[in-house]
Write a structure and sequence with these properties.
- The complex is a heterodimer of chains A (255) and B (71).
- With 255 residues, chain A is mostly helical.
- Chain A has a domain at 59-186 and 205-242.
- Chain A contains eight helices and no strands.
- Chain A has helices at 2-11, 14-46, 57-87, 90-122, 130-151, 155-169, 172-182, 202-254.
- In chain A, helix 3 packs across helix 5 and helix 5 runs antiparallel to helix 7.
- The longest helix of chain A has 53 residues, at 202-254.
- Chain A is elongated, with a radius of gyration of 22 Å.
- The mean pLDDT of chain A is 89.
- Chain B has 71 residues and is mainly alpha-helical.
- Chain B has helices at residues 10-47, 53-70.
- Chain B is rod-shaped and about 65 Å long.
- Residues 62-71 of chain B have low confidence and may be disordered.
- Chain A binds chain B through residues 44-49, 54-56, 58-59, 62-63, 66, 101-102, 105, 108-109, 112-113, 116-117, 119-120, 218, 222, 225-226, 228-229, 232-233, 235-236, 238-240, 242-243, 246, and chain B through 1-4, 6-7, 9-10, 12-13, 15-17, 19-20, 23-24, 27-28, 31-32, 34-35, 38-39, 41-42, 45-46, 48, 50-53.
């Protein structure tokens, strides 16, 4: 246990994280490209038409990963926020802050692609269904976190306020997941992650899982990139403060 | 297997993929530009001789060690 904690602490050091991210990023980027090429080939040239949805099932190959990863992104923010509040670890703070815009893009894309699927299948771009509405709330939570980070200038204060909002907002995650069971919704119930196994044929399930892996890998590439930049931004801020301190001291000596 | 002939709802399918490509492409470009900007700002500050306390501390320690060893 102590060894695991020690390894985590070593990794959580921002300088070590920068070195690790630089070494790992080209590899994950390569894996992401390969997964996308495979996933798109399977989606467009191997997967058959769905017996009900026809060709629009191809929208599901991107819509479902966007929705899952938006939720995973928020879960990541909530866990990092707990780390940030309890251990006051700056890297947890950085992880939480930088996941918000990426999660917001994924949530937005899940809503847009869902509505582009809904129009031909349901006859409407939007309905105030429990699943759709709770997903819209998730997008607003991401935007709220981003606004909070921008509104409070000092990173540690902004981090604490955003962490509290993120943890409180995480109550929305089970609501999204179980909305299709708790309420009578137009959105279909779970068909992949459910008791008794997936109810989708492997010819559609495999492309969906490959595309999900591709988008998951992309999420982490973007998150690592954003975390690296955020660490640099904080170094710039620290150096500017050092510069102001030095200017203040030299002005004091002259006076 | 359907290839690129996507039937009567092709517009909705292509629009989904196009919007996703544009939003994610925009996000990648924004992240790259932000990273380049921070690297440039950091390089400018370091070129003006502004260094981190940890870097100064390390330099101070090594110079002290240097003095001891020279005695």
């Amino acid at each position: 246990m102590a060894q695991v904690e020690g390894a985590f602490n070593r990794l959580a050091n921002p300088t070590r994280f920068m070195a690790l991210a630089s070494a790992v990023l080209p590899w994950i980027t390569g894996v992401t490209i390969m997964l996308f090429l495979t996933g798109l080939y399977l989606a467009f040239f191997v997967a058959p038409e769905d017996y009900q949805q026809g060709h629009t099932v191809k929208i599901m190959f991107i819509h479902v990963p966007f929705a899952w990863l938006a939720m995973m992104g928020y879960g990541l923010i909530a866990v990092a926020s707990i780390g940030s509040l309890i251990w006051r670890h700056p890297l947890a703070d950085v992880a939480a802050k930088t996941a918000a815009p990426i999660g917001a893009c994924f949530a937005l894309l899940s809503l847009i692609t869902g509505s582009l699927w809904g129009k031909p299948m349901w006859g409407a771009y939007w309905v105030w269904d429990a699943r759709l509405t709770s997903m819209l709330v998730l997008l607003f939570l991401f935007l709220g976190l981003m606004a909070l980070w921008q509104a409070i200038e000092e990173p540690s204060r902004a981090g604490r306020a955003a962490a509290i909002l993120a943890i409180v907002g995480s109550v929305n995650l089970p609501i999204i997941k179980f909305s299709v069971d708790w309420w009578n919704t137009l959105h279909q119930p779970a068909s992949v992650v459910k008791l008794g196994g997936p109810s989708i044929h492997s010819s559609i399930l495999i492309p969906l899982l490959v595309m999900t892996l591709a988008f998951t890998s992309l999420f982490f590439v973007l998150h690592f990139m954003a975390m690296r930049t955020e660490i640099l931004r904080r170094r710039v801020q620290a150096l500017r403060l050092t510069q102001v301190d030095a200017a203040g001291r030299s002005a004091g000596v002259q006076a | 297997m359907s290839g690129l002939d996507l039937g009567q709802h092709a517009g909705f399918i292509w629009a989904s993929y196009l919007v996703s490509f544009l939003v994610l492409g925009g996000l990648i470009i924004w992240l790259r530009l932000d990273a380049n900007r921070q690297v440039k700002l950091l390089a400018d500050l370091e070129a003006r001789g502004v260094t981190r306390r940890s870097a100064r501390g390390a330099a101070g320690k090594s110079s002290k060690t240097g003095k001891k060893s020279s005695r």
